[in-house]
Amino acid sequence: MKRIVVVIVGLALIALAAYFVLKPRMAENRFQEGITLLDSMKYELAVEKFTKAIKLNPKEYKYYLKRGIAYAALNNDSLAVDDYSKAIQIDSTISDLYLYRGISLRKQDEFTEAMADLNKAIALNDSSAQAYYQRGLLNAALFEFDKAINDYNKSIELDGSNIEAFFSRGESLANIEDFRGAIANYDKLIEGSNATPEAYKKRGIFKLKIQDYKGAIADLEIALKDLPNDEELLYSLGDAYSNDKRFDDAIKVLDKALAIDSNMPMVYGVKGGALLRKGDFKQAIASFTKAIQLKPDYLKAYYGRGVARAFMKDYKGSIVDFNKVIELNPDYVQAYYNRAVSKAILGDHKGAIPDYDRIIKADPKNAEAYYNRGISKMNVREYNSGCDDFQKAYDLGYKPAEQMLNIYCPKDKNVKTIIQ
Known about the structure:
Shape: elongated
Organism: Tenuifilum thalassicum
Largest sheet: none
GO biological process, one term: receptor-mediated virion attachment to host cell
Protein name: Tetratricopeptide repeat protein
Radius of gyration: 35 Å
Distance between the termini: 142 Å
Pfam family, one: TPR_11
CATH topology of the domain at 31-125: Serine Threonine Protein Phosphatase 5, Tetratricopeptide repeat
Keywords: Repeat, TPR repeat
Number of helices: 24
Order of helices and strands: HHHHHHHHHHHHHHHHHHHHHHHH
């Protein structure tokens, strides 16, 4: 009996010893199964395998790292951060652990902690292109665009194959209004092996920003071949066509954008501008009105409609629109000018004069404003002051003022007598 017990105990000890010997191998097997599932984007199943691996061997940092990556792919960044932190407790010298934790912290808007982790990742491995790229994204989220650009530069220097780094750098350059720099950024992408439709689209949009309309059209038309239903592309191409005076082409492409989504106020606004410049004032008013219905604070739509109404001789309507423009932006000088003209045509010269005053204050060399103010002053019998305005307009090189001076302001005669 004793012998049987000894044998049983011995077998149990052997089995237990075998289990502890095989345990790390079993953990590694579960881990490799998890990797296969992770690569296949079966994230929930991957988490299960990594969890089994961790139970078998809780002292292996890479198990926590990969489970953290799976959690992050499932948008569970809180659990991902917990796993990365456990991995760091096991080995605090691995750059990627800080990198991934920094990414998840950024996604949770924990920017201070994320920055500390990304700085640590770079300190541990200053050749990590991904760490610089992720820190660039974080700096951009913090509106530190110059710092972001420096990080993207370093990331691209280390790994020029990361297309997203080029796009992110382009956006940051645009945010500091360095549109030529943004164009140069996409030049490098297009001249390489990554001439994607999206790259042409972005470069075209930034060419539009610097008023290179023909260059913008060339790029946007290339992009359009592969992105025929891209609303932003259609809108930008329509804008470029309009500015290049290809009004029918502009209207056609903008109508295509509106067929995809009829609730885009900016597209109606640009279409209204094309119709206005084409001389189709009635349709321009309709397009601007639709834009305003969708976006009640759309300043340029009010301004464009005001101009179109003035061309249609609806001066009262134009004044209403210019009033709204000035309400939205009291420094929009051109609205004062057009409102003054409409007021003057309606005979409200007294109301027009303060608008001309505002224009001249903003632009003391605006000869036409002096000239028109002179006319309005004559109409309210401010004769001497009106003559002063004609003289100023003439001195600034506005030739029509000479005729007004000769007729109404001869130096040897009384101005009031001449007017009467």
